[in-house]
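Figure-free illustration: sequence to structure, shown twice.
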Amino acid sequence: MEFRKIEFLSRLKRIVCDACFCIFLIIALCFAFAKAANPLTTAFYSADAAALVHNDSLFIFAGHDEQGPQGNNNKAFVMNDWHVLVTDDMEHYHDYGAVLSVKTFKWANASAFAGHCEYRNGKFYWYVAIHHGTIRENGSEGFAIGVAVADHPSGPWKDAIGQALITDNTPNDVKLNIDPAIFYDGNDIWMYWGSWNAGRRVKLKENMIELASTPEDIKIKDFFEAPWMHKFRGNYYFSYAAGYPSTTNYSMAPTINGPWTQKGVINDKMENSETNHQAIFKYLGHWYFMYHGANSPGGWTYRRSVNIDYLYYDRDGNIQKIKRTSGVDPVNNALVEAGGYRMVVSHSNLALEDSEGMVVQQTADEKNEAQLWVLAHGDSARYYTLQNFKTKKYYCPPTTLLDTVKTSTKACEIRIENASVTKGYYLFADYDSDYLADVLNVSKDAGMPLITWVRTGTDNQKIKLVKTDLPKVEPPKDTSKVTPPDSGNGDLTGLGSVHAAEALLAKFAVYDGAARVIRLTQNAKWTLLDVNGVVVRRGYGREINVRSVCSGMYFVRSGARIAKVVLW
């Protein structure tokens, strides 16, 4: 009896230990995946990824390599489905799983090769390359391009047209119809694809599932496969795999029709992987370069993994050589909360100060009100105003490179995006051109000014926004002598206190608490201010959206009229 008891306890101990080990392993794998760097995941082998930014989330549409370990009998791509991953911080990636497969397309029989998804008309359209079950010309591999459609990237996905969009029977197709990529150029919808040194493009109809033209040659001399098109500073960029084993090269043109100037290699050949397949996209103020390599355990040419690194341009718009790293910095995509801040430069730990109309970095001084800034939301998301608490002037960067950042009595809206969770924010002077605030010469010296320069990702361009309580404005002793506000600058400095302001209030604004909207009696230029007289927002119209404004007492000013509004 005692022996059986010991045996039972021994077995129980082994079961518990095995269970604990399994739980530990699962947690470790989940944590490793959740805290993904490069590669993005080791949970499965991934390749040929495309990117889609939608509603401030980044969706990644990736192929799935299922080939076995490296060996002479495994020299082929084994791919049967596609995964979708999503992130909103470039650190934690959620895998929706294999949401689309070859089986979705009844006319196809194998090979879930590279695809590209775009959003239009309220739907998601996913263009993928697959072996056609019946159509195959002599000398080709029988690949076709199909289209799947869904209401959300997680699916469910279905065949959008019940047949292939491009096959070997399509006029002027190529022998290897793979690697579709969609590009919007105004109202025109283009699809690029091709391999074996032959690339094509074709216009699509607005419905996204019909051709609007005959395929035409892309006319890029060193093109091999993996086309990708994007636009920046008015120029068109066509990137692609060149040669085999491949590098990633790009060409540049002033129009979508050329003439194309070959610019050379931006991503070198991959170690232990013959293919090079890229996606270039902008997300939350950063330009990124996504590609696959063989850097997961057991990885090789037919077992690849998706990586993401930064992409930078020089002052002339040329793409800089990609530096492959262990991963990009995590970001916070939440809107910046309105209120008081100290702005501290990441590389020098000095505070930004309004010094005689110029923004400079200075030794931090908590008593120096010229180092206090009031951040308010602009007229559109991710655009803000920064008003200096002491001088009442606004941060107003020039769009000319190498020019200093100055302050102005007139409000200037700027784009602010999180550069790094730990190192701060980018203050953009020209968001579309990738121009932003930069401490001159990467200096750590006090008194050095901010200038406008191209985004390089260095720490002298990263500004920490340190939330700070603003000093309270003391009311005057004799409120009967308070003068009306200055109509020129739109603030309430002259009112001095809430009690003094009440004598001047006009009933022309009504607050709708349910909708979080202030409604005026007529269209007018208006200014929303806090109790300290600091401008929160400006605009024109009959409605003031205050969903992003904190609860409390505010004033609405229009011309000489002022109304008190209490938000809750």
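We now fold a second protein in the same way, so the two outputs can be compared directly.
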Amino acid sequence: MIRRFLGDRRGNYALMTVISMVPLMGALAIAIDYTELIRQRQDTLNALDAAGIATAQQIVSGATDDATKAYAKNFFEANLGHVQPANTLLTVTLPKDNTGGGTLVLQAALTYKPYFVPVAAMLLGKSSGNTNVDFTARSEIRLKNSLEVALVLDNSGSMTELGHGSSQVRFELLKSAAKQLVDQLAGQAQLMKQVSKPVQFSLVPFAASVNVGPTNANATWMDTMGVSPLDQENLDWSTLTSSALPNQYAVKSGNYYYAKGSAWDATQLNQVLTRFSLYKWMKRISSCTKNSSNVCTSNIVYAPIATWGGCVESRPYPYNIQDTAASTTTPATMFVPMFAPDETDNVDTNSRPANNNWHLDATVSNATDSARQKYMPKYFTPGTKVTPAYGSNAGPNASCSTTAITPLTDVSVAVGQTAVKTAIDAMVDVGATNVPEGMAWGWRTLSNAAPFSEGRPESEKGNDKVLIVLTDGANTYYTPTSVTAQSYSGTNYLQGGNDLAGSKAIYSSLGYLAYPSQTKPFNSTYTYGRPFLGTSSSVTKTDYSNANYTKAMNEHFATLCSNAKTTGMIVMTIALDLDSTKTTEAAQMAALKTCSSDSRFRKDSTGKPLKLFWNSTGATLSDDFKEIGNELSNLRIVG
């Protein structure tokens, strides 16, 4: 009987079922907990994303820090679904606490407490221990891109004309539209309490040159030591000899000339002679006791002839159309103060004077007019009569007609907004049109590197750098006989000035166009002037005409546009009152349109991005600037 009992297998299925139920139930418990964990994890993610978007909207509307964090917590917990709020922890990092700003960070921690895992562990014969599951998730919401805008605005003399379709002059229309744009963007910026300097504007007024500001005379990027090949251009320090001025002369050592002689004071003696030396050390008689012939005889008081107005030369190609940092190791990258040479006292056969004759030549009578123009002793010969000082756009500051650059300024604060608008109102309209020079300096104001380093690093995400370039005419650089000469009292005054010195152009930031009998320092003699450097064969280097000068400047402009956009700059261009039936103006319109970037948001009927180019008139300028403001507003919202 015992043997039959031991051999009986009829109840084994029940026993095996009982034994197998232990791992089966454990697996089922794990499966249920895993499914619930996935659901709670997804609910947490959904709540986190929703809270991020909702909280960002609170920040944009101007909520305080405490209110923002409380709102984020309440919104997150209200949307957790099956998750118990007690099992979560939300951490809110506001945009202002992040490097670079602009990004809201929400991080959620979820502790999942399994329903069955402890039981399953015991069934499997294992210690339960801590069976909670921890999970973290992070959500980043960029509120709006920060924005840096350079207003590069034409301040040439043609801006005094009435705007087409308007009873106001172009310049007043431009000032109004530009201030309107600043106000529009400033209004948005003032709500962005969580972002440092959310919207910044710089202002670059341009005409024949750009004014970087006389306060930058000692900046590291200015050529204070005369290392640039442009420093001695049109000046011949070798003429300042001891035979010409026995007690105040120059001696060359290496590439430089040094002040020698007892007439130099202690701060001047043995110093390198540069353009800054001229501004600081040229003297005139400001007051004296005169004789019957109006000649000073005693009590003579000397004063500077002029102080540097702040305008700089255009750097030699290719640096004129680049943002290459200024460095003494590459002398041509340094920025050189403009100094308009005193031109010949002589008049031509038509009794035309030179365009910029502001000092007595003080040279021998048989000297050539080119030699008279470069003769240095005249600048240190005060004369015998009281003479006035020269200010902007006169004397050595000729062609320096614009107000100074306003660096990037935060318009989210009232003081910054007012400063930019005040600078716009202060602009003056006089001079020629050099769009490439204006745009190049606009680019430099947006750069993170000197000369103007207020811009955010180019590598920073979520920041847009925008160049807005407006002009009402073609690029211009004039021959001496094509423009009105300085005021002249002769009875045979004619239109235009003479070019007895053979310079081929009036002086501007581009200097002169030809350099007869001129030896350049540092073995950098140019065979032709800077406007022709780097141009194609279509620009004839011996064609000294306004039209050819414009063609050369247009080529530089095209390359500059390409260079700027390659670095990520967004370029917006505006042609104001240009006439497409005129060849030069039509070419400028085409160049401006080609220069402009593509819109990220607006498309034409074929789905192709629209160009950020506006063909404006005086009547439409205000509305066009509103459209530009809308485009900039869209740039700030990241999809």
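Summary for the second example: The first strand starts at residue 88 and ends at 93.
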